[in-house]
Amino acid sequence: MARALEEAERAAESGEVPVGAVLVAADGTCLASCHNAPIAQHDPTAHAEIRALRAAGERLGNYRLPGTTLYVTLEPCSMCAGAMIHARVGRLVFGATDPRTGAAGGALDLIEHPSHNHHIEVLRGVRGEEAGERLRRFFRARRGVSSP
């Protein structure tokens, strides 16, 4: 999660929403380390999670990523949750919950929906306060609101 938080900081430094993701193989090898980049890439799908899945798939020569763990600083949205299911990610570890658009229990729960034939183990709230504060700081700065 520390590396995902570093990626989130890179996103913030480039004006992107500070979300970072790291995808790790079952043997502990880092397959991809990415941050949000929809603004820079002019691509609404360039979320940290999607970029990590794409990079790992390219690296491994396979769109299926069984046994992997995805560490992400913010609860994934429905697009990212769906991509994780299709990629057969084994485990999701995320920091801050997202009650508005989170799809792993925040706003809805696509990850653990019983209709899916692939199920992902989920660990919520890992360094969540730190990740959440990073997001709050970013949005306060964007709105021009001083910190409390």
Primary descriptors:
single chain
Overall strand count: 5
Poorly predicted regions:
none
Shape: globular
List the helices and strands in order. HEEHHEHEEH
Summarize the biggest pleated sheet. Answer: 5 strands, mixed
Distance between the terminal alpha carbons, to the nearest Å? 27 Å
Give the strand order, joined by hyphens, for the main sheet: 2-1-3-4-5
Helix content: 25-40%
β-strand percent reads: 15-25%
Radius of gyration: 15 Å
Number of helices: 5
Overall SS class: alpha/beta
Description:
With about 150 residues, the chain is α/β, with parallel strands linked by helices. Helices cover about 35% and strands about 20% of the residues. It has helices at about 1-15, 40, 50-60, 80-85, 130-145; strands spanning about 20-25, 30-35, 70-75, 90-95, 120-125.
